[in-house]
Amino acid sequence: MTLPPRLQARWDSISRREQQLLLAALALVLGAVLWWVALAPALATLRTAERQHQLLDAQLQQMQRLQAQAKTLQAQAPMSFNEARRLLEASVKPLGSAARLSIVGERVTLNLQGTAPDALAQWLAQARLNARAVPSEARLLRNAAGTWDGMLVLTLSAR
Fold this sequence. Notes:
The longest helix has 60 residues, at 16-75. The chain contains four helices and four strands; from the N terminus they run H-H-H-E-E-H-E-E. The protein is an alpha+beta fold.
């Protein structure tokens, strides 16, 4: 490698020991740059790969469960409107007197007051699977006691 004349003259003017120290410093700087640009990011990715793999496996299992659930729902025989209504009315009873259900046509409105989150989640899953009611609107507020107040609107399949 040839250096510009001024730089070559300066290089020739310093002692052999200083040249070796400058080359060592340059090698150290190049090694550090190589570490920060190429090796450190790759090692960081390698360290987190196992955790990311576990998270992606969990997501895949969840997606497969949802796929199986969707296939089960698609395979179910059609349900009559009256049967869906009866199942929905029966499913509200475990929520207690704080839940009032009103059905007008295909629109089902559930008014809630002080309903436990777990009970509401279970009821929604049951309404979706058993009565095939589809949530279309939700206005829920979490109160100071940690329970839900508000309204849910669901749609039943056409008669």
